[in-house]
Amino acid sequence: MTLHSPTLAADLRRPLIIVRARAQDLPLRLREASGDVTPASGTLALYRGAVQGEATGDLYVTGAITPGSTSTYALSAVPTTEALSSLWSAVWTWVYGGVTYSDRQRAVLVGQDLRPRVSVDDLYLEQPDMRHPARLPSGQSSWQPQITAAWDEILQQLTATGKQPWLSVDAADLYRWHLLLSLSRCCAAIPGGTDSHYQSAAARYRAEADRAELQVTIEYESNPGTSVSVGPSVIPLAPRGRPAW
Prior knowledge:
Layout: E1 9-10, E2 16-19, E3 24-32, E4 35-37, E5 41-48, E6 58-64, E7 70-75, E8 85-96, E9 99-110, H1 120-126, H2 144-160, H3 175-189, H4 197-213, E10 217-219, E11 227-229
Parallel strand pairs: 2-9
Antiparallel strand pairs: 1-3, 3-4, 3-7, 5-6, 5-8, 8-9, 10-11
Helix pairs in contact: 2-3, 3-4
């Protein structure tokens, strides 16, 4: 009998972003303890319009994936007659090591892809000494992992507070928040011990990021001209990472 691998996981942390009126390859990344893996085969079933009490919704399309280190499904352009919605879902099925797996991923139909505006060069403008290769953590060739992790943190935080960042007009107003979070993560990753200058800078940038968050507003494509604050409705007395008093 072939058993499921306990270390195999699909990277489904973010919703699957489907840009209306654009043909695109929808990605599925699989990981084991040893790194990325390639399935033998697989399929994607894409559903739309799920409502409360429904697991999926109406089937929109289904078909085979192209296996690879990041497997893909070639989606034809979704017509503009489809309403923008966060109520889509994807059911991935794949075969690996002779075993069939399946997992569900939230999907969002958007008018344009929301992408971060922060680059490594932006970090250098704020913290020029980060250009030095010796500042990089072992095994890294750039600061892009910290930038990506900070962006993931923002998206997860917005989602956790009921916001829908993937349906917003653009990411311009998120720039400062993202930049400061990225700087905080970069400084925290620089070798030197917990009492180093960079650890102090990491804490300072994190505090500035928390303040920048309170100033951010987003405008949804479905309601142009109206901005919504992304800051928490209740401001905690304790800094993040510490228990509330």
